Amino acid sequence: MGDRLEDGYDVVVVGGGAAGLNGALMLARSRRTVAVIDAGAPRNAPAEGVHGLLARDGMAPGELLERGRAEVRHYGGHAVEGEVVGARRDGDGDGFTVGLADGRAVRARRILVAAGLIDELPDIPGLAERWGRDVVHCPYCHGWEVRDRAIGVLATGPMPMAVHQAHLFRQLSASVVLLTDGRPAPSGEQAEELAARGIRVVEGEVAAVEAADDRIAGLRLADGTMVAREAVAVAPRMRARAGFLAGLGLHPVEHPMGVGEHIPAEPDGRTEVEGVWVAGNTTDLSAQVGAAAAAGAAAGARINADLIAEDTRAALAAYRAPFPAGGEAPPSGRAPLWPA
Ligand SMILES: Cc1cc2nc3c(=O)[nH]c(=O)nc-3n(C[C@H](O)[C@H](O)[C@H](O)COP(=O)(O)OP(=O)(O)OC[C@H]3O[C@@H](n4cnc5c(N)ncnc54)[C@H](O)[C@@H]3O)c2cc1C
């Protein structure tokens, strides 16, 4: 059950995965008012456990995030269920209004975008159904879980990336086959390297991933040949979830590695739109959970510093100005402009 969304916060975090929750944790612990708005579809939801994460290896993705939400709430942050559909800068130039799919709206002095990405899987019958189980993408996330199995690496993007992926999975299993899916087969030194490590190359278009008894049986080629395999590795095209930022003039761009689209940012998460920050897979397409959480924490700390600078400017202006008439209370969520 999510928290009630208030009218305004210092920071609204869009997305409550590892990046967004760690950002919110830093902000809440800095006594910032913060709401994490989350649509509840983290990227690793199909996986049984989170791997390669120190001290939490194997924990179910849902449990990790539930613990994260509890930690954010412990310090007064809000974890709100909802989908952000748009954001605009307010007319007074002092922050943003963020709109939700159900018609709610909330004001924010800063926005941290941690909405993750969409994995665009190859359109091959039978493949999507097994995604995150025995159709995998990342040797560090679930390579150990498919170790020693017969693995088929399906070329989905640029061939050098597929060759690299084949070598990574060869570290985990002696039985690795690279399926070109109609692309030109590797040649020259690349072909020799594959042969030297016993990685067979299978040419031809892949028509289907076939399963029996809830396990992958193999890949069926368009010519009818069956390539028996127990697991399939793919490299989905990764697309940052960022359509709702269009109103702020922030659009995803092609990633320099040619693997998808992301929102470019400074190392601390600052984007080209002042006041809007990003963390996790929205900007770093290759970040695993640990790196996404770390980026969220770093962005949260930098946003706090940015707000402190703004609060200090306001405090200084008030300090230098004549004594305010009436001595009314400062606006909520801001540092006091004068002693009580
Ligand atoms: C099958 C699979 C298995 C994986 N296994 C591992 C593993 O074992 N170890 C590991 O370290 N990494 C693993 N990963 C990678 C891991 O999923 C990512 O590193 C991690 O999810 C990135 O965190 P994030 O916070 O950037 O994004 P996410 O975890 O995807 O969180 C983004 C959140 O934002 C929400 N959101 C999106 N759009 C909106 C919107 N408009 N409004 C509100 N909310 C929105 C989403 O619903 C989601 O909850 C795996 C990935 C996959 C695909």
From TrEMBL:
Superkingdom of origin organism: Bacteria
Every FAD/NAD(P)-binding domain range: 9-295
Presence of the UniProt keyword Transcription regulation in the record: no
InterPro entries with a match to the protein in the record: FAD/NAD-bd_sf, FAD/NAD-binding_dom, Ferredoxin-NADP_redctase_2
Keywords, comma-separated and alphabetical: Flavoprotein, Oxidoreductase
UniProt source species: Streptomonospora wellingtoniae
Protein's recorded name: NAD(P)/FAD-dependent oxidoreductase
Catalytic reactions on record: [thioredoxin]-dithiol + NADP(+) = [thioredoxin]-disulfide + NADPH + H(+)
Signal peptide: none
Gene3D superfamilies from the UniProt entry: FAD/NAD(P)-binding domain
UniProt cross-references to Pfam families, sorted A to Z: Pyr_redox_2
